[in-house]
Amino acid sequence: MKIEKIIPGGQSLATDENGKKIFFWNALPGEIVEEYVITKNKSHYAEAIATKISNLSSYRVEPKDACFLSTSPWQIMDYDFELKTKQALVVELFREHQIVIDKPEIFTDNKIYGYRNKMEYALYYDLEENKIFPAFHQRGSHRKIPIIKSSIERPEIFTRAKEIIDDLNSRGEEARKYQSLLLRCNQDGQVSGGLYENKKPHPIFNNLSDNILGYKYSYSPNGFFQINLPVYEMALKEIKKHILTDKVLDLYAGVGTIGLSVARDKDLTLVEVDKYAFGEMAKNITTEGISERGSTRVSAKTPVATGVLDATRNGNIFAILSKSEDALSYVAPDQTVILDPPRAGCDEKLINRILEVEPKTIIYLSCNPATQARDIKILLEKYKIKDVKTFNFFPRTPHIENLAILSLK
To answer: In the chain, N or C terminus with fewer CB closer than 10 Å?
Structure first.
């Protein structure tokens, strides 16, 4: 089968002699797949891994890791081709929702390995060597692959993983006792995290901190925080250019890094549903980093609207524990609204509320351009697209981070 193109999601498309669509890993456009292993077989399509290929693409390069299919399946392609492919996929995903955009500018710091600040490893027990190895799950299966080298995470993480596993081996521990090994590293190279034991609550690890655009943020190793901070800062600088109102509402705020980095001097409201992320956000709104605004103290809880579980205020900054779709009363016309939802996109109630209230500017950062385009298609009833930019947060993988700026018509 000849590979036709790369599709959203990162696989390559081919069609067999019966017209069935096959979605391949480890294959590039123009290549001929001669042998493959099917990992999922449905009546109208199948997913597979190419194992023998001819007519090799000029864009193909040698993968750096033996485990690349598990962690970063685009290690097989030239990096310039990866960037152009991601730009084209954004255009295609918007076109599928009848939205025509120009090829977006794509941002990268060109660091394509050693960028991840968080990694979770499985544990594999080798019966021949009688010891534990760090492992990843083989793509398309539950089988574990032992690894001796991994290149996409910061090297401090893999070094620490080996130290922890060497300690397990010195004590004769069994791999089946543990669910996984989770580690995170800050920009200074400090590593926190540890082992998750089966059938036991996840342990509380020491917090880490990082500076983003001059402000200090605290976060838990097993909580949500951005994976690639240098490229994330590029996105924040682009977002900040479009903050032109005195009031800003940051929805799906996490630990607050977007709103607090770009609108800390504004009348800022941050909304987050996860209670642990909210706890970190409450700390972060009192952290001044290297700014000169001086220290302040979090006040007592402030009266809040229906649907809000908790809240705290620090001067001009108001942090709310709530689902974004339950905090609709905080959407106002004289605002810039920042959206950074999970992969599923925005809740329909929130989209309808935005259309009803008509905030001046919508800043929509998404880890899934497919659901982003779906939501924007609805918002185009009253908004127009002012700008679209793409950020390569996850080199050597198909994941795309996309920023869209919408202004009221």
So the answer is: C
Q: What residues are paired with 2 via a beta bridge?
A: 32
Query: Cβ distance 290 to 327 under 8 Å?
Result: no
Residues 6+ apart with CB under 8 A from 395: 72, 74, 79, 82, 108, 111, 112, 113, 115, 152
CB contact at 8 A, 273 and 284: no
Give 5-92's CATH code, choosing from 2.40.50.140, 2.102.10.10, 3.40.50.410, 2.30.30.100.
2.40.50.140
Name the residue type at position 110.
Answer: N
Indicate left, alpha or beta for 207 from its phi (over 0: left) and psi (-120 to 50: alpha): beta
CATH architecture of the domain with residue range 97-109+224-408: 3-Layer(aba) Sandwich (3.40)
φ, ψ for residue 361, nearest 5 deg: -135, 140
pLDDT tens-digit profile of 94-123? 999 999 999 999 999 999 999 999 999 999
- Render pLDDT for 350-397 as a digit per residue (tens, 0 to 9): 999 999 999 999 999 999 999 999 999 999 999 999 999 999 999 999
